[in-house]
UniProtKB/TrEMBL annotation:
Localization, UniProt: Membrane
The organism's taxonomic lineage, starting at the top: Eukaryota, Fungi, Dikarya, Ascomycota, Pezizomycotina
Xref: PANTHER family: NCS1 FAMILY PURINE/PYRIMIDINE TRANSPORTER, PURINE-URACIL PERMEASE NCS1
Pfam families with a match to the protein in the record: Transp_cyt_pur (PF02133)
Annotated source species: Podospora anserina (strain S / ATCC MYA-4624 / DSM 980 / FGSC 10383) (Pleurage anserina)
Domain of life: Eukaryota
Major subcellular site: membrane
Similarity-based family: Belongs to the purine-cytosine permease (2.A.39) family.
GO cellular component annotations of the record: plasma membrane
Membrane protein topology class: Multi-pass membrane protein
GO molecular function: nucleobase transmembrane transporter activity
Keywords from the named record: Membrane, Transmembrane, Transmembrane helix
Transmembrane segments: 42-61, 73-93, 124-142, 163-182
Protein name per UniProt: Podospora anserina S mat+ genomic DNA chromosome 5, supercontig 8
Length: 228
């Protein structure tokens, strides 16, 4: 949504001011009159955005409750581990097992590169592995925050006591399994690509090899003709 409004504002600046202006501060500098000055006053730059975010986050998260006691602090930190464990597992599995340490590094920064996976830009294998790893630990996390619900979740909170082991192991194995049975062949390469020039050099080398073979073939044909 933010990107959409940015494109709209930039396109509108061409109509209003005769040129494309990407900088919102420069656009605001063209606003004249009382309404323009009022709009510029309420414009949210980076500094104002940080202040507002800090105030809202400090109130919504209520950090004083998190550090109220050692138990609440540990419960909060453990809750983060539920989500961090599968992420670490999938990163490790993809690097060491699935891709075998070979990546197209420039392609990692391309929105429509080989690692887009689908039109939504989502690796569904990672999403499935993440859900399988996280969901079983959620009841235990809820019980650690609110002990009064322990009687309603049965033994589901037992898994929470080893959430990192479960989260890492399950996500690691599920991701590898899905990548094996449902591979994404466009992401598998024979060697790491560090720069775009590596691809160009390889293509030039291939073309050069073809031309050399062609020259040798022509020379061989000439020798045969001359001998006849």
């Amino acid at each position: 949504m933010l990107g959409l409004f940015g494109i709209i504002c930039c396109s509108a600046s061409k109509v209003v001011y005769g040129k494309y202006i990407w900088d919102p501060l420069e656009i605001a500098s063209h606003w004249d009159g009382p309404s323009g000055r009022a709009g510029a006053f309420f414009y949210l730059n980076i500094r104002r955005g940080v202040i507002i975010t800090t105030v809202i986050a400090g109130w919504v998260m209520q950090p004083w409750k998190i550090i109220h006691s050692a138990q609440s602090l540990l419960a909060f930190m453990a809750g983060l581990g539920i989500f961090l464990a599968p992420i670490a597992a999938m990163l490790s599995a993809d690097y060491w097992v699935v891709q075998k340490q070979m990546y197209d590094i420039p392609g990692l920064y391309r929105a429509h590169g080989r690692y887009r996976f689908n039109k939504w830009g989502t690796n569904w294998r990672a999403a499935v592995a993440f859900l399988i790893s996280v969901v079983p630990s959620i009841p235990g996390m809820a019980a650690s925050v609110d002990p009064s619900i322990k009687g309603t979740i049965g033994d589901a909170d037992k898994l929470y006591f080893m959430f990192y082991f479960w989260g890492y192991t399950s996500a690691f194995l599920v991701y590898i399994g899905l990548s094996y049975f449902f591979p994404a062949p466009e992401t598998h390469i024979a060697a790491t690509i560090y720069e775009d020039s590596d691809i160009i050099s390889a293509a030039e080398g291939f073309d050069k090899g073809d031309s050399e073979l062609g020259d040798e073939k022509k020379m061989g044909e000439k020798e045969v003709v001359s001998s006849v």
